[in-house]
Design brief:
Length: 728
């Protein structure tokens, strides 16, 4: 017997219902209160929403986190917000994922509130409501103590999970929990002044650290249910193709196989163990319909992107126009031109995609590590035909996501399988299936021009071509909107580029290919910042200026915080004062109001880059846990370096070539920086912004700019060749 088979299946709501203690807002919000959910995305008052806290009679404080925990540390940060306002001892705090419900939705898309995690929004959206939840629970505990002792509530104080009165009376939160549960929750509460914080802004240990170190944390792949079956799949490798014919005779006769299910675009083998299902799936003989994409390869995709740069291209969307850049460029005596190109990228999460579903006559339960539980409900309603109130989504820990687990194609597969299996069934994609069926960061091309007459930049021109990473998430109507098409140039448009030019023109050309695409960590800035920051260095070289000095000249007056971040970064890195034989490169970015600068210092050993040091500085406004912010910037930077140094999804005959970590090359320890240091700017009262994504975009251009400083070779196509002599 698998040891995991003996583990009980915990119920989040069942746990809170059985506490026999204080549960703050155990019932979901009323319709009137739910209307306030739209305000979350704008950080407005959400005082009426409070379904986050439970206190057991033993004093354990259970925080229901509305954000999925995928390694970013949001469960710890949001628990800190609750515990600080609650005046709870940090050692008493436990965190559970909140099951999908109205109380945990917010409207990132107007008029469409969803329970979801992504876009580095968790702290931005939930910091205030979670603080209010803690403050409201504290007020109820104090009211219970005051009533018990016959004293005024304003005479009582709290700290370390204890209510105290000047008379010497005191009671623990656990002792007061039952009485507090009968108190009326106050509609409004006073929150602490930042000077009173004991946990917010402090680097407390992660609440999930012990479980992850000891291996007891349960991820989606660890779910075990009585009578559960397992499914392994073979999905059409052309992404948009279909199943033509299947020979499953051998698979059906293998030990442990219960059934072979054929769907329009995939085949599933169901067995009593996953390994048996996977071995049987390997014997399937499937003929696929390539939907006309059998001749597509990486070269043809690149050629299509090149065609999009033609002056005769019709499908062009202007994303930025400052003055008449075309005329300035036409009249210039010296024009710098460059082309930058990047490949498809996989998310390469440590945990392969999986989902466990049990469909019964009157309910459907889904256990999954997903970024969007509300979308899981919608998919389950459509596929099972049940009412949404009969759908129960249980969010498990995610073994990595980076945007991949926002799309739900694999969950739809699991639901479709479960409708034909009279038992709980866990569908697990193999690593090969996970890699070849990704929702990739699109392959993109960027063409740039700049006039560099008279020692200055007179005009800037950029055109971006490629697939829209939002295509897997948006309706056909939204995808037709010019605003959405211009999304391709995020990081180059006037609203999100930090550089002010005398004249500028930026254009976007959509190109749709048959491969699935999706949001990858930092979305479009993974490629636009690479091209932009490398091209700024090219301009600096052409003008004979230091790259940092040119950025000082070009930075818009509106970007005072980014300027301060850059100055801090070059100072910490010792810009211009690297040890002999080492060379430096710099890059900066504004990701949604979080400002990041990085300097890479490297040498060239045996014709390969050796990164000695990466220095990063971040201004993300107010932060909750500086240790987690630092870890996120480190992780983001390493992911950016990994993509630059080796990652690429390629296509042959319409199919993805890569299948596992042996041919989808992630960053090795020997290639990682010897030293990574992260510095955080004083938040100075600025609102909180994202931290999971701004660390990724500057890493690749800072690396490539350092390579130019060392070798005189410009890297314009990623990934970087392992031997620098191979750079054209």
């Amino acid at each position: 017997m698998d040891p995991l088979d003996t583990l009980p299946e915990p119920s989040r709501r069942g746990l809170l219902a059985g506490l026999g203690a204080l549960v703050v807002a155990a019932s979901l919000p009323s319709p009137a209160q739910a209307s306030n959910l739209r305000d979350y995305a704008h950080l407005n008052d959400a005082a009426n929403i409070n379904a986050f806290v439970g206190i057991a009679s033993d004093g354990t404080v259970t925080v229901l986190s509305p954000a999925a925990e995928m390694g970013q540390g949001s469960s710890t940060g949001l628990a800190q917000c609750v515990a600080d306002e609650l005046d709870a001892a940090w050692g008493d705090v436990k965190v559970l994922h909140a099951d999908e419900a109205k109380a945990y939705r917010f409207a990132m898309i107007p008029l469409d509130p969803r329970h979801m995690t992504g876009g580095s929004l968790s702290i931005r959206v939930w910091r205030q409501p979670m603080r209010e939840a803690g403050a409201r629970a504290r007020a109820m505990l104090v009211a219970a103590a005051a009533s018990r002792w016959g004293v005024r509530a304003d005479e009582c104080t709290t700290s370390e999970s204890v209510v105290r009165h000047p008379s010497g009376k005191e009671a623990t939160y656990g002792e007061l929990a039952d009485d507090a549960a009968r108190q009326k929750a106050p509609r409004r509460v006073r929150l602490k002044d930042p000077s009173q914080f004991t946990l917010i802004g402090k680097g407390v240990p992660r609440e999930d650290l012990l479980g992850k170190v000891t291996g007891t944390t349960r991820y989606g792949i660890d779910v075990r249910l009585p009578g559960m079956l397992h499914a392994s799949t073979r999905t059409c490798p052309y992404h948009v193709g279909k199943v033509r014919r299947v020979d499953a005779a051998e698979a059906r006769g293998m030990p442990g196989v219960r059934d072979v299910l054929v769907f329009d675009d995939f085949v599933a083998v169901v067995a009593d163990r996953w390994w048996k299902a996977e071995q049987a799936a390997k014997t399937l003989t499937i003929t696929w319909d390539d939907a006309g994409h059998g001749d597509v390869d990486s070269a043809s995709i690149s050629a299509s992107l090149a065609q999009a740069m033609s002056p005769d291209e019709k499908d062009v969307y202007v994303c930025r126009r400052d003055g008449k850049a075309e005329k300035v460029l036409a009249a210039a005596s010296q024009v710098l031109t460059s082309t930058y190109e990047v490949p498809y990228l996989d998310h390469a999460t440590m945990e392969p995609l999986n989902c466990t579903v049990h469909v019964q006559a009157d309910r459907c339960d889904v256990w999954v590590g997903a970024q969007g539980p509300t979308l899981v409900v919608r998919n389950a309603v459509e596929i099972t035909g049940l009412h949404r109130d009969q759908i129960h989504v249980h969010t498990e820990y995610l073994g990595g996501a980076y945007g991949r687990k926002g799309n739900q194609g694999w969950i739809q597969q699991a639901l479709r399988i479960a409708t034909r299996v009279d038992a709980p069934v866990q569908m697990l994609w193999s690593r090969e299936e996970t890699t070849r069926l990704g929702r990739y960061r699109p392959a993109m091309r960027m063409d740039f021009k700049a006039s560099v007459d008279d020692g200055r930049v007179g005009a800037f021109y950029g055109r971006v071509a490629g697939d829209n990473s939002g295509r897997s998430y948006m309706s056909p109507f939204l995808l037709r909107l010019p605003l959405v098409k211009k999304f391709l140039a995020e990081g180059l448009r006037g609203a999100d580029s930090p550089y002010a030019y005398d004249t500028a023109l930026v254009e976007a050309v959509p190109r749709t290919f048959h491969l699935n695409v999706g949001f990858w960590r930092s979305v479009n800035q993974t490629y636009t910042v690479f091209g932009r920051e490398c091209f700024v260095d090219e301009i600096a070289h052409a003008l004979g200026k230091d790259p940092v000095d040119l950025r000082r000249e070009l930075l818009s007056d509106e970007y005072t915080r980014l300027r301060a971040v850059m100055e801090r970064c070059v100072a910490e890195a010792g810009w211009g004062d690297a040890p002999e034989g080492r060379y430096q490169g710099v890059a900066i970015t504004d990701w949604g109001g979080s400002f990041c600068a990085q300097v890479v210092e490297l040498s060239v050993v045996d014709d390969r880059p050796r990164i000695h040091r990466l220095t990063a500085v971040l201004d993300c406004g107010i932060y909750v846990n500086p240790d987690q912010v630092t870890a996120q910037v480190m992780g983001g930077a390493l992911m950016g370096l990994s993509a630059a140094l080796g990652e690429a999804i390629t296509v042959e005959g319409g199919r993805v070539v890569q299948s596992n970590f042996h041919d989808y090359r992630l960053l090795r320890m020997k290639d990682a920086p010897v030293e990574v240091e992260v510095h955080l700017m004083d938040p100075a009262g600025h609102p909180p912004r994202g931290v999971g994504e701004p660390g990724t975009p500057p890493a690749a251009p800072a690396l490539c700019n350092a390579i130019f400083a060392a070798t005189g070779k410009r890297v314009r196509t990623l990934p970087i060749p392992s031997q620098l002599s191979e750079i054209p």
